[in-house]
């Protein structure tokens, strides 16, 4: 099962970012005593009592008028609600109950999601009289904490993990290829799946956000079984375009964690955006096999070197995943769509490939002869032995004499030699250095 998602929502300046940073264990969100400082959606992984979850910090839901910003608040709250499995609704224990809290509570009560009402800035064990006013929000027992002083956080985390969904995801057989179709909204994720399936299995619309939740679509092609996980987008509104993109990342995280292979969809008419980089980066960090699918290729005006130039731009922008194959397709004209399944199957096999230990050490020995390991102050790095520890992604452990002598450039050299000998196309490779007496 993928990590549950927990979103922190509330009006500005109630301490959401301070709480987020305390759980993250580092200063990720900007903390300043000024409303509206958190302009991005920021996420981090948190562990508590053998539970792991993704925590989202959100900007404040602020009301400054009866019309435009009220709509803005509703849209932001809606995005947080649709994304998360559990909502942490944070209020200010010093300021007491205010009308904006009531407006947000009205939305959350109708959400059908577990909501925890958290009263922040309660710095003593004696609850202020204003604490009891929050019962009026009808969101259950309020939890008193102080983010700044780390008071009550353990009890709050207990309440959060107790509300996680149980066995929400369906388990699939090991040999079924699970494919996460990822990318920002409206790049054609559902259209590509429908084209591959040959039928309308997923609703397709030009409105970004038609797909409300991640949809699993199992199907068989020849002798191979697949499950496509179509990641949800968020409906665009005129004032929240930027915020939509932040949530599309978090939605993609959930699907990426469940998948073997990621199809990173890029809009040919837009090129690689910052949001594409974030989503691609998460797939890379999670060690997933990835194919880059440039959709809407039919809409681009072509010149002699258009495809080569586009490929070069992708390689520059996504330089951390040079292993990922690139396909230029059109869901509308079906141009090269038939290559997608072939590529997905191929990189899935590469992702789970295990190489013989003897052959692996022969390759490394030859690489050492061609390019000696680095040295420092007269002491040279020695490589004794290499073994493949795991697959999905392929992980190699190199036993050495001194970890401090390792250098990034030589590790990259070894990785390149492994790829030259065995392939591993479409998948990241993990290389770990251990001193001879270390355990794997």
TrEMBL record:
<dbReference type="InterPro" id="IPR032859">
    <property type="entry name" value="KH_dom-like"/>
</dbReference>
<keyword id="KW-0677">Repeat</keyword>
<dbReference type="InterPro" id="IPR016484">
    <property type="entry name" value="GTPase_Der"/>
</dbReference>
<comment type="subunit">
    <text>Associates with the 50S ribosomal subunit.</text>
</comment>
<dbReference type="Pfam" id="PF01926">
    <property type="entry name" value="MMR_HSR1"/>
</dbReference>
<dbReference type="GO" id="GO:0005525">
    <property type="term" value="F:GTP binding"/>
</dbReference>
<feature type="binding site">
    <location>
        <begin position="183"/>
        <end position="190"/>
    </location>
    <ligand>
        <name>GTP 2</name>
    </ligand>
</feature>
<dbReference type="InterPro" id="IPR006073">
    <property type="entry name" value="GTP-bd"/>
</dbReference>
<dbReference type="InterPro" id="IPR031166">
    <property type="entry name" value="G_ENGA"/>
</dbReference>
<keyword id="KW-0342">GTP-binding</keyword>
<dbReference type="Pfam" id="PF14714">
    <property type="entry name" value="KH_dom-like"/>
</dbReference>
<dbReference type="InterPro" id="IPR015946">
    <property type="entry name" value="KH_dom-like_a/b"/>
</dbReference>
<feature type="binding site">
    <location>
        <begin position="120"/>
        <end position="123"/>
    </location>
    <ligand>
        <name>GTP 1</name>
    </ligand>
</feature>
<protein>
    <recommendedName>
        <fullName>GTPase Der</fullName>
    </recommendedName>
</protein>
<dbReference type="InterPro" id="IPR027417">
    <property type="entry name" value="P-loop_NTPase"/>
</dbReference>
<feature type="binding site">
    <location>
        <begin position="57"/>
        <end position="61"/>
    </location>
    <ligand>
        <name>GTP 1</name>
    </ligand>
</feature>
<feature type="binding site">
    <location>
        <begin position="295"/>
        <end position="298"/>
    </location>
    <ligand>
        <name>GTP 2</name>
    </ligand>
</feature>
<comment type="function">
    <text>GTPase that plays an essential role in the late steps of ribosome biogenesis.</text>
</comment>
<keyword id="KW-0690">Ribosome biogenesis</keyword>
<keyword id="KW-0547">Nucleotide-binding</keyword>
<feature type="binding site">
    <location>
        <begin position="230"/>
        <end position="234"/>
    </location>
    <ligand>
        <name>GTP 2</name>
    </ligand>
</feature>
<feature type="domain" description="EngA-type G">
    <location>
        <begin position="177"/>
        <end position="352"/>
    </location>
</feature>
<comment type="similarity">
    <text>Belongs to the TRAFAC class TrmE-Era-EngA-EngB-Septin-like GTPase superfamily. EngA (Der) GTPase family.</text>
</comment>
<dbReference type="InterPro" id="IPR005225">
    <property type="entry name" value="Small_GTP-bd"/>
</dbReference>
<feature type="domain" description="EngA-type G">
    <location>
        <begin position="4"/>
        <end position="168"/>
    </location>
</feature>
<dbReference type="GO" id="GO:0043022">
    <property type="term" value="F:ribosome binding"/>
</dbReference>
<dbReference type="GO" id="GO:0042254">
    <property type="term" value="P:ribosome biogenesis"/>
</dbReference>
<feature type="binding site">
    <location>
        <begin position="10"/>
        <end position="17"/>
    </location>
    <ligand>
        <name>GTP 1</name>
    </ligand>
</feature>
């Amino acid at each position: 099962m993928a990590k549950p998602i927990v979103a922190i929502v509330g009006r500005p300046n109630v301490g959401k970012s301070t709480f987020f940073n305390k759980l993250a264990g580092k200063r990720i969100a900007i903390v300043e005593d000024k409303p509206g400082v958190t302009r991005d959606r920021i996420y981090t992984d948190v562990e508590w009592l053998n539970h792991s979850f993704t925590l989202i910090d959100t900007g404040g839901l602020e009301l400054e008028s009866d019309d435009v910003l009220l709509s803005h608040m509703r849209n932001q709250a809606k995005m947080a609600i649709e994304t998360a499995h559990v909502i942490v609704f944070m209020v200010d224990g010093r300021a007491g109950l205010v009308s904006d809290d009531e407006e947000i509570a009205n939305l959350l009560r109708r959400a059908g999601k577990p909501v925890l009402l958290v009263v922040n800035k309660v710095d003593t064990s004696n609850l202020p009289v204003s604490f009891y006013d929050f019962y009026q929000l009808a969101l259950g027992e309020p939890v008193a904490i102080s983010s700044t002083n780390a008071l009550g956080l353990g009890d709050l985390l207990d309440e959060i993990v107790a509300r996680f969904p149980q066995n929400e995801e369906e388990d699939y057989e090991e040999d079924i290829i699970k494919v996460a179709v990822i990318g920002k909204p409206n790049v054609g994720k559902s259209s590509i799946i429908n084209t591959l399936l040959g039928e309308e299995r997923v609703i397709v619309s030009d409105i970004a956000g038609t797909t409300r939740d991640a949809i699993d679509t199992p199907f068989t092609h020849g002798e191979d079984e697949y499950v496509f996980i179509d990641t949800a987008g968020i409906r665009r509104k005129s004032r929240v375009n930027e915020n939509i993109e932040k949530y599309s990342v978090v939605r993609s995280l959930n699907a990426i964690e469940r998948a073997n292979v990621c199809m990173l969809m890029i809009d040919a008419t837009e090129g690689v955006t910052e949001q594409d980089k974030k989503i691609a980066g998460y797939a890379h960090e999670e060690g997933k096999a990835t194919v880059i699918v440039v959709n809407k290729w039919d809409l681009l005006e072509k010149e002699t070197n258009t495809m080569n130039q586009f490929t070069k731009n992708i390689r520059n922008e996504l330089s951390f995943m040079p292993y990922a194959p690139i396909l230029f397709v059109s869901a509308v004209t079906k141009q090269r769509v038939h290559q997608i399944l072939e590529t997905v199957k191929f990189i899935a096999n590469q992702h789970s490939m295990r190489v013989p230990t003897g052959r692996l050490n022969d390759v490394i020995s030859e690489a050492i002869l061609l390019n000696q390991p680095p040295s420092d102050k007269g002491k040279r790095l020695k490589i004794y032995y290499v073994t493949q520890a795991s697959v999905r992604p392929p992980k190699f452990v190199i036993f050495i004499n001194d970890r401090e002598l390792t250098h990034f450039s030589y590790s990259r050299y070894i990785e390149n030699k492994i790829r030259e000998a065995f392939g591993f196309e479409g998948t990241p490779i993990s290389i770990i250095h251990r001193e001879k007496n270390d355990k794997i």
